[in-house]
């Protein structure tokens, strides 16, 4: 099972569960997460959604081996459930908390732009590897990250393809609280349960009033990013990076 789902005290916890692949997102996990987010949105007994990862990673991003295979066989051009998950994140009407327990790479970082609260382990690190992979940003990160952490912090994350540790992520403002590894989930859950004790219609109203002004910007950024991504995907820099990662020569 690529996604573990549990409920406690009106908090629905989603655990990314591909630990052998460092919780990298394949098509199955994208769809499972999108479905779980939409189910949580529709469930009157769920007030808050908490996302974390199994094992030593939060998420190592997109499954590059699957990505390379789908580019080679032409199926990637038909679309990805990546978009399905991003739409579900953008539309989630209830508070979203992310507990970053380990490395967050690519979507493991950009998903945080949709979180209302981010808790991060002292041992966790973040990276947006787009320039090292020869591709464009994703998940409206070119819009959401400057809004969240300021233009220069976002520029470094998106342009450098360098790691950012938990202390730096906290300084930037992408992590709300940094916790010792053993305290991460208990602390995130404690805060989730505070929110979950409140009126769900009120939580939804507050979140909507916060997020509504950003919806048009998210949609426009997604369109821009997708156009650049498709242009660069499979190009020389991207093919070389994927081949180096997977140990396979580009065809």
Automatic annotation (TrEMBL):
UniProt-recorded Gene Ontology molecular function terms: delta(3)-delta(2)-enoyl-CoA isomerase activity
InterPro entries noted in UniProt: ClpP/crotonase-like_dom_sf, ECH/Chromodomain_protein, Enoyl-CoA_hydra/iso
Isomerase listed as a keyword: yes
Chief localization: other
Superkingdom field: Bacteria
Record Gene3D superfamilies: 2-enoyl-CoA Hydratase, Chain A, domain 1
Subcellular location: Peroxisome
This protein's UniProt keywords: Isomerase, Peroxisome
PANTHER family linked to this entry: ENOYL-COA DELTA ISOMERASE 2, PTHR43684
Protein name: Enoyl-CoA hydratase/carnithine racemase
């Amino acid at each position: 099972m690529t996604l573990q789902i549990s409920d406690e005290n009106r908090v629905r916890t989603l655990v990314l569960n591909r630990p052998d692949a460092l919780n990298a997102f394949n098509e199955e996990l994208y769809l499972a997460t999108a479905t779980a987010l939409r189910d949580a949105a529709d469930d009157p007994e769920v007030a808050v959604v908490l996302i974390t990862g199994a094992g030593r990673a939060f998420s190592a991003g997109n499954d590059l081996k699957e990505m390379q295979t789908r580019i080679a066989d032409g199926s990637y051009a038909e679309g990805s459930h990546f978009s399905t998950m991003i739409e579900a994140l953008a539309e989630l009407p209830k508070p979203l908390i992310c507990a970053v327990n380990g490395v967050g790479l690519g979507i493991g970082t950009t998903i945080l732009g949709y979180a209302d609260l981010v808790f991060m382990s002292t041992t966790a690190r973040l990276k947006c590897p787009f320039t090292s992979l020869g591709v464009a940003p994703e998940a409206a990160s070119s819009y959401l990250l400057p809004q969240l952490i300021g233009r220069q912090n976002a520029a470094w994350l998106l342009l450098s393809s360098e790691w950012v540790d938990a202390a730096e992520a906290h300084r930037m403002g992408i992590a709300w609280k940094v916790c010792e590894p053993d305290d991460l989930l208990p602390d995130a859950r404690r805060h989730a349960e505070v929110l979950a004790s409140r009126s769900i219609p009120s939580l939804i109203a507050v979140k909507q009033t916060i997020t509504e002004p950003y919806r048009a910007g998210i949609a426009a950024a997604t369109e821009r990013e997708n156009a650049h991504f498709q242009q660069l995907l499979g190009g020389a820099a991207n093919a070389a990076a994927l081949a180096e990662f997977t140990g396979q020569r580009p065809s």
